[in-house]
Design brief:
Elements: E1 13-15, E2 27-29, E3 38-41, E4 44-49, E5 58-59, E6 64-65, H1 79-87, E7 95-100, E8 106-107, E9 111-116, H2 122-134, E10 146-150, H3 163-176, E11 181-188, H4 196-203, E12 209-213, H5 214-217, H6 220-239, E13 244-247, E14 252-257, H7 268-281, E15 285-288, H8 298-302, H9 308-327, H10 338-342, H11 348-356, E16 364-368, E17 378-382, H12 388-397, E18 402-407, E19 420-424, H13 427-432, E20 439-440, H14 450-465, H15 471-474
Parallel strand pairs: 9-10, 9-11, 11-12, 14-15, 14-18, 15-17, 16-17, 18-19, 19-20
Antiparallel strand pairs: 1-2, 2-5, 3-4, 4-6, 7-8, 7-13
Helix pairs in contact: 2-6, 3-12, 7-14
């Protein structure tokens, strides 16, 4: 059997790279650990022994538990090292072929968006998009990637102000005004809380945004027909744009992980983190999210916060989530799923340490509310749930033109209007789900360097940004993964 992998000299555990006393990706004790003592992985605490653990024993949920993790760093204390990590990758300007929009945005795709303002208009936009596709309406317009219907379960029965209203408004306007969208049509019932006129006013550029309501149009069938007629009228204009060279600095990349396993923090996540550093050095934005999945690793971000204000903003988000889960009868350690645990992850502290490595090592320049516009170059953190569809919806609303998603157990996720690239953390998964996985990162375990893998990821990102179809696009995924985070009371 291959020797277990030791990630840090101080670690209490080593990682099985093939099946032994447990499955590959699981942990075994490097030495005896007394009950109540901290267990270390990556040189960091991942939990506490709930019983005496013998050297060589399997370390998992039966003998390792969650525990307190007080903040141990001063904001910005690692900022100089983070700046050095950014400077390390300065180099020749990278580029992709994108769609240039008014205002300086650059898209990686060219969609027409149908945006429901309320659940009541979900059916009509989905029916219209489906009929247009089945009728072959888009066949004569090769520069249009499709008609995407963004339907959801909210928009009414809610307050007309406050956190929940603002979050949904940012999501809907963020998708309508997204750089990957050539034109957008808001569709409402007419009497809902989330009014079209208010959102069009926020967007400003009236020529690109259109709207209608079911009540004013004459009912369900008449609205479907009206949507289709409007799309047909918009198609020649949207099709007229063509790709042109754009600098990598125009990219906003959403970083995600889902179905994580014990190899996520060893292969795909740190490789993506290094790719994030390379892109940040180009002036691109890379967006780490999933607040409930950085819990326990937030110190690693706070230590390289660009300013004290950025550090405090992140700490405020963590405190909000502690309160949010407590008042709903949960804890943040409820986050690791059964699949995560089967893959070798035991506590949220362990999962978070692997998840945060997607963000690389450069300065943390901004902390954003859910769905807020991504404006700062380099590493940004956006407050989102760990639930993948809701998290990605927020990143895309902020302007991410591409999502890069690592997975160890397997994922069938896709997204629109920003496509998703999926990176397998282990070669077994890559072989098992070849139609879903865009890149195998499991070969990091057999000798491929993280730097070489990161360069492969950057090349894949630039190719996808230039129009190369991702595996999830080829499968037609993305129509049902638009899931705005519903915050606040349903009335």
């Amino acid at each position: 059997m291959a020797e277990p992998m030791v990630l840090h000299p101080e670690d209490s555990v080593a990682i099985l790279t093939e099946r032994g006393i447990a499955s590959a990706g699981h942990k075994i004790a490097r030495r005896g650990v007394a009950k109540g003592a901290a267990v270390l992985k990556y040189g960091q605490i991942i939990g506490y022994a709930t019983e005496d653990i013998a050297e060589g024993a399997h370390v998992h949920s039966h003998n390792l538990g969650f525990g307190a993790h007080p903040n141990r760093v001063r904001p910005g204390e690692a900022l100089a090292a983070a700046q050095a990590a950014l400077d390390l990758w300065r180099g020749p300007e990278l580029a992709f072929q994108g769609y240039h929009r008014d205002g300086g945005q650059v898209g990686t795709r060219n969609y027409i968006a149908l945006v429901a303002t309320v659940n009541c208009s979900a059916t009509v936009i989905r029916r219209a998009a489906d009929e247009l596709t089945r009728e072959g309406t888009l066949d004569a317009f090769p520069n249009v990637d499709g008609v995407a219907a963004f339907a959801h379960g909210s928009g009414c029965g809610m307050a007309d102000s406050g956190e929940g209203f603002r979050a949904l408004s940012r999501v809907l306007t963020g998708h309508a005004g997204h750089p990957n969208v050539g034109a957008a049509l808001f569709v409402g019932l007419g009497c809902e809380v989330m009014q079209i006129a208010r959102m069009k006013q926020e967007l400003g550029a009236a020529a690109r945004f259109h709207g209608l309501t079911i009540q004013e149009t004459g009912g369900t069938r008449a609205t479907i027909d009206a949507i289709k007629a409007k799309v047909r009228a918009l198609l020649p204009e949207v099709n007229a744009i063509t790709r042109a060279p754009a600098p990598a600095s125009a990219l906003r990349i959403g970083l995600q992980c889902g179905g994580s396993d014990g190899f996520s923090g060893i292969t795909a996540n740190p490789a993506l983190g290094l790719a994030s550093d390379m892109l940040a050095a180009q002036g691109a934005a890379v967006v780490l999210s999933e607040t409930s999945e950085i819990y326990g690793a937030e110190d690693l971000l706070i230590a390289r916060a660009a300013t004290p204000e950025v550090a405090e903003q992140l700490m405020q988000k963590i405190r909000w989530w502690e309160d949010y889960t407590a008042r709903n009868g949960a804890t943040l350690d409820n986050n690791p799923s059964p699949g995560n645990k089967a893959g070798g992850l035991t506590t949220i502290l362990e999962k978070s340490l692997g998840a945060v490595s997607k963000g690389g090592r450069t300065p943390l320049n901004a902390v954003l509310d859910y769905g807020a516009p991504i404006t700062a170059p380099g590493l940004t953190f956006m407050d989102t749930p760990g639930y993948d569809p809701a998290s990605v919806t927020g990143q895309i609303a902020g302007g991410a033109q591409l999502i890069v998603f690592t997975t160890g157990r397997g994922s069938a996720f896709g997204s629109k209007p920003a496509p998703t690239l999926k990176l397998a953390t282990n070669s077994k998964l890559f072989a098992a789900m070849p139609d879903d996985m865009d890149l195998d990162c499991g070969d990091v375990l057999t000798g491929v360097s993280l730097e070489d893998k990161a360069r492969q990821i950057v090349a894949l990102i630039l190719a996808a940004a230039s129009g190369q179809a991702t595996k999830s696009e080829a499968l037609g995924l993305g129509d049902h993964e638009f899931v705005p985070w519903q915050i606040g009371a349903t009335l």
